[in-house]
Amino acid sequence: xxxxDVEQDGWYTVYxxxxxxxxxxxxxxxxxxxxxxxxIVVRAxxxxxxKYVAIKKILRPFETDIHAKxxxxxxxxxxxxxxxxxxxxxxxxxxxxxxxxxxxRTIYLVLNFVDRDLNKLLLQRVPLTETLIQLIICSLLxxxxx
Length: 146
Description:
Structural class: alpha+beta
């Protein structure tokens, strides 16, 4: 992780993995979690709360109509599943560092950091206990609760 731009107006720019992140100064100590075709995810420390958060930088969110629809769909789904008691995913914040609409090219999603991944758990082929299955189903249902 390299800090390239000096903190200015509450924002700073840092490189993590193959991505350049321009973030509010409250998010520090970035660690790459993963990257794919649609985004880069890092873990950061929220210095306001002292807790870890996951920050997803959506790559090319408005490059084409398909990209824009995918970005909109992801944001709407996260907003719909945003239940504080669910252990699914919680959307804390959405922001862009751009100052005007003509420069609007970047979207960052700030999410709760979960150190476990259901997909990785299932790929391990480890038998799940009935209690764990109940917890997963309960969390998913809480996330869907309106």
